[in-house]
């Protein structure tokens, strides 16, 4: 267990969401108290006090959590289900398993591996999968298994089937670190875990090849990046994080690309960290980030 996870021993995170109504906060806090928990962080939000949706994230400490968590879950099922609420409970000392899919660009991939090695991301990384081999040695230098799954031509079904075999039962979520392949709806169904993507914020203004050259020719003043959950609708999933950087006429297309890569790294790492810490609640095509 890492020092980070050791610090979170006996800490649980409870996510609650559903129709807003009087008494939710009281019910949740009373439940934690009667299960001998001590609340250390609590965030909540209602999008409309009159019949809207309610969202809550509670972190609490409970000695011998592993032994007590089953009883707490039974209490949650009985108490919160009666209120029409959905919930998840996670042991914060257990890192989520994160697989990374990458292509030839390495800036987001290596940034995630570096932050993981420094203990900044509360995850384990069981594998990196790429449709190219240029990052293999870099990945293995971090002690992370690297798998090459070629993906060429219009039919990606064989490559996707191989990736599904690698991921099945081994990961809790997947990150696309500039993985330049469109994932099929069948693939998303088969892996059955959240997928987080990163892309430059020019979409859909400068789609296709050489977006930074196109942006330079247009004279843009802002560049940026967006990280979002992947859905069956291409690049239209719920947004987790975004950021921008100012540019001007003196910046070349290469300058824009370099600044864009910096923003992409920061935005993706934040999205990964928040997801791993159970700070993101999906609500339709939006997110609530605590």
Q: What order do the helices and strands come in, and which of them pair?
A:
Blueprint: H1 3-7, E1 11-19, H2 24-34, E2 38-46, E3 53-61, H3 65-81, E4 86-91, E5 96-102, H4 107-117, E6 123-124, E7 128-130, H5 136-141, E8 146-148, H6 157-167, E9 173-177, H7 185-191, E10 195-200, H8 211-218, E11 222-229, E12 239-246, H9 253-276, E13 280-283, E14 286-289
Parallel strand pairs: 5-6, 5-7, 5-9, 7-8, 9-10
Antiparallel strand pairs: 1-3, 1-4, 2-3, 10-11, 11-12, 13-14
Helix pairs in contact: 2-3, 4-9, 8-9
Question: Which features does this protein show?
Answer:
290 residues, alpha/beta, 8-stranded mixed beta sheet, 4-stranded antiparallel beta sheet, 9 helices, globular
Poorly predicted parts = none
Helix content: 25-40%
**Average pLDDT:** 94
The span between the termini is: 26 Å
Tally of alpha and pi helices: 9
């Amino acid at each position: 267990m890492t020092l980070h996870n050791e610090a979170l021993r006996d800490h649980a995170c409870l996510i609650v969401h559903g129709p807003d109504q009087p008494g939710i906060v009281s019910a949740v806090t009373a439940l934690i108290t009667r299960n001998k928990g001590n609340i250390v962080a609590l965030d909540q939000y209602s999008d409309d006090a009159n019949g809207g949706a309610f969202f809550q994230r509670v972190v609490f400490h409970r000695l011998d959590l592993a032994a007590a968590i089953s009883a707490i879950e039974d209490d949650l099922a009985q108490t919160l289900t009666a209120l029409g609420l959905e919930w998840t409970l996670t042991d914060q000392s257990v890192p989520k398993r994160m697989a990374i899919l990458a292509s030839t660009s390495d800036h987001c991939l290596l940034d995630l591996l570096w932050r993981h090695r420094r203990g900044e991301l509360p995850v384990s990384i069981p594998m990196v999968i790429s449709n190219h081999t240029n990052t293999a040695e870099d990945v293995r230098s971090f002690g992370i298994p690297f798998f090459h799954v070629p993906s060429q031509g219009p039919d990606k079904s064989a490559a996707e089937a191989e990736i599904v075999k690698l991921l099945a039962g081994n990961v809790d979520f997947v990150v696309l670190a500039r993985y330049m392949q469109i994932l099929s709806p069948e693939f998303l169904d088969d892996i059955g875990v959240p997928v987080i993507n990163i892309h430059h914020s020019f979409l859909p203004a400068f789609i296709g090849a050489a977006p930074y050259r196109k942006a330079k020719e247009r004279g843009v003043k802002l560049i940026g990046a967006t990280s979002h959950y992947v859905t069956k609708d291409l690049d239209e999933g719920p947004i987790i994080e975004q950021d921008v950087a100012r540019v001007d006429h003196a910046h070349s297309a290469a300058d824009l690309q370099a600044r864009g890569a910096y923003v992409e790294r920061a935005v993706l790492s934040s999205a990964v960290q928040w997801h791993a810490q159970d700070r993101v609640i999906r609500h339709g095509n939006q997110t609530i980030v605590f």
